[in-house]
Amino acid sequence: MLQRQRFKQLPTLHFRLVQEAMNLRKQAAGMLPSIPRDGLLRKAGQMDVAAHLNEWLTSPGLQVPT
């Protein structure tokens, strides 16, 4: 049976999501107000929400989100 090679992500998922949100906001800062800029900002917001959900899901207490 063939086995997949596995590798461990060195930076955590939370760190990668936050970094990507920062990169998207930096790209959007250099653009004039437009539909593509709004898309970048929307995607950055989605990354922030995903990072928050990941943090909540991996917390030891699993408390209700605020």
The major sheet is characterized as: none
Distance between the termini: 46 Å
Helix content: 55-70%
For the secondary structure, the number of strands is 0
Report the uncertain regions.
none
Question: Which structural class is indicated by helix and strand composition?
Answer: mainly alpha
Sequence of secondary-structure elements: HH
Approximately what portion of the residues adopt beta-strand conformation?
under 5%
Task: Give me the oligomer status.
Answer: single chain
Query: Looking at the structure, what is the overall shape?
Result: flat
Helix tally equals 2
Query: Could you tell me the radius of gyration in angstroms?
Result: 16 Å
Mean pLDDT: 90
Explain this structure to me?
The longest helix is centred in the last third of the chain and has 23 residues, at about 35-55. This protein has helices spanning about 15-30, 35-55. The radius of gyration is 16 Å and the shape is flat. It has a domain at about 15-55. The chain contains 2 helices and no strands. It is an all-alpha fold.
What is the gist of this entry?
The chain is 61% helix and 0% strand. The protein has helices spanning 13-29, 35-57.
